[in-house]
What we know:
Oligomer: single chain
Shape: elongated
Strand content: under 5%
Low-confidence stretches: none
Number of helices: 4
Structural class: mainly alpha
Number of strands: 0
Mean pLDDT: 89
Distance between the termini: 33 Å
Radius of gyration: 21 Å
Helix content: 40-55%
Largest sheet: none
Amino acid sequence: MTKAKYPMGITQEMVSAAETYLLAKVLEEAVEPVVTQYSKEVLEKYQFKASSKWDEFDELKGSVILDPKLTYLLSEDDWAIYSAETFKARDLSGLKVSRPDNCPYLEAKNHRVIAENALIDAVAKHPKLGNLQRHLLTLDERAKLLEESKCPK
């Protein structure tokens, strides 16, 4: 088997990391709308209200939670129902997770971030980037590096 040659200091490790990142990004983008849809359906069905512990905030007091991003406002009892119902919907949709209490979207997002980190680590070895260290990058610098690596964010 012959080793592929790439121009301008690009290595097989960089190419493999970019491929893995792109696959993880596609998976995340495929899973997110499915999870969002069934999460919204559960919230619409049950019409959960914000927990009474949020009553000090007038805009939240007694408000119905219909946005999955606001489920942290649910009471523990409502959260238990919401979780059970979304897990049932997850299983019916055929989405797979590594542990029974996991959310497929959060798992996919985590895989994408891990792949992003591996891509940044691989690209950081390019001679023109010097001593790049991913943990020192701001979010804007991280996004710029991914963009300059010819990969979508």
